[in-house]
Design brief:
heterodimer, A: 338 residues, TIM Barrel, B: mainly alpha, 74% helix
Chain lengths: 338, 92
């Protein structure tokens, strides 16, 4: 059985995000991720209110990064959430969105060491341990929370490049692959297998989530229109190796990134082609989406995250996913009714 | 007659459809930021408990939709044949 996750961007009013979160839980989504960007509403405040209005859905930052927030602060935040919603909290961690980091002159330097050490800090501190650590990036001397946490918090590492994918599989309980195309997941699985082998664990012990840019609508045209701004951000922040795989030049991606940084939205969005939409999103009518999700599952995905924009009308799209996609994949709700 | 009394007169067969239409107005209005936080939390409370298509839930939804988009609210209520409710809203 595959898990379905959903992503919300707290650019929306807090009560809208919470309304959709309640809807996601009611309709049978297993996991909810809220993005973390400094220019949107705060991820932990958003998750705290989501936790108060939901009872069973798992949730977490998807993803936070150790450049904007020290991992000890992240550990404190997820541990506090875990007190509000015991056993439902996850922690998604990655290097962050390049475009947003550039806005505050942050450079995601030494990403592998930074993520490895961050995961250690978050894991040990959030599980109540006293941490002494002299890392290459972080040093922690006798840090410990003054409150108890009820359960272990699974850490999902966001990854796209080969080394980060292997590291994510090695140190995480889950991997969040920033990819929407089966070809990218297939490639990612090679490195994920390397990572689990390095740690001597089984691939079955790992949650492999395809963190997709997702747009579903009755009409293909409407689904595509809704996904274009998100695809523009993805192309703008994509590693060169991934761009090359999809036949997109670095020059085009740079132009799009510059347009986004300078808020020239029309320029940025007009450069998005159908090929880019195909490569970087799960987008279309329910029939097309079923096909694309099936492709992702076939190559090893265990969780499909319906990421932003979800569709031109979020509420209708969530209902459409529940009614027309879940039944094809033996969702939790369907199992319950069997 | 008050808004609350008129909401009670909505036939039970129309509660679900009215609720659905009002939710759409509230979620998709460009003036959604006019919604007071207290009212938003009350609506979330009823939504979590599947009570947005009950009289009490509809009263709060109606209050919200009138705040964020009075014209669209009146138009939707007219479509649903709830003319008395429109008259009350227009008087208030």
């Amino acid at each position: 059985m595959i898990d379905f996750g959903i992503e919300f961007v707290p650019r929306d009013l807090y009560w809208k995000t919470t309304f959709y979160a309640i809807q996601a839980e009611k309709t049978g989504f297993n996991t909810l991720w809220v993005t973390d960007h400094f220019n949107n509403r705060n991820v932990y405040v958003s998750l705290a209110i989501v936790s108060a209005y939901t009872d069973k859905i798992r949730f977490g930052p998807g993803v936070t990064n150790p450049y904007m927030a020290h991992p000890i602060v992240t550990a404190q935040a997820v541990a506090t959430l875990n007190e509000i919603a015991p056993g439902r909290v996850l922690c998604g961690l990655g290097v962050g969105d390049r475009t947003t980091l550039e806005m505050v002159n942050m450079k995601p330097s030494k990403p592998l060491a930074t993520i490895r050490e961050s995961v250690r800090i978050i894991r040990e501190i959030s599980s109540g341990q006293n941490l002494e650590m002299q890392g290459k990036i972080f040093a922690v001397s006798g840090a410990k929370l003054n409150f108890r946490t009820p359960s272990k918090i699974p850490i999902f590492v966001g990854a796209q490049g080969p080394k980060m994918l292997a590291l994510a599989a090695e140190i995480g309980e889950g991997v969040l692959i920033n990819a929407s195309h089966a070809q990218d997941i297939t490639r990612a699985m090679e490195f994920i297998k390397e990572g689990v082998a390095r740690k001597g664990k089984s691939i079955e012990d790992l949650e492999v989530a395809a963190y997709t840019s997702f747009s579903i609508a009755k009409e293909q045209k409407k689904a595509v229109k809704a996904v274009i701004p998100v695809v523009a951000y993805i192309v703008a922040g994509c590693p060169e190796s991934v761009l090359q795989k999809h036949g997109i030049s670095l020059e085009t991606a740079t132009k799009i990134r510059q347009a986004i940084i300078q808020a020239r939205w029309k320029d940025a969005f007009s450069q998005i082609t159908n090929e880019m939409v195909e490569a970087f999103s799960v987008c279309g009518t329910p029939e097309i989406v079923v096909e694309k999700v099936s492709d992702l599952v076939k190559v090893g995905t265990t969780q499909v995250v319906a990421g932003s924009p979800i569709g031109p009308n979020i509420r209708k799209s969530i209902n459409m996913i529940a009614a027309e996609i879940f039944p094809h994949f033996g969702s939790e709700e369907e199992e319950k009714h069997d | 007659m008050t808004l609350e009394e008129n909401v009670r007169k909505i036939p039970s067969s129309a509660l679900e459809a009215t609720s659905e239409k009002l939710i759409d107005i509230v979620l998709n209005s460009p003036n959604a930021n006019k919604m007071p936080s207290g009212l938003a939390k009350t609506i979330l409370y009823y939504w979590q408990r599947d009570q947005l298509a009950t009289e009490i839930g509809l009263q709060r939804l109606l209050e919200a939709s009138v705040l964020v988009d009075p014209e669209k609210t009146a138009s939707v209520l007219r479509e649903l044949g709830l003319h008395e409710l429109v008259a009350v809203l227009e008087e208030s």
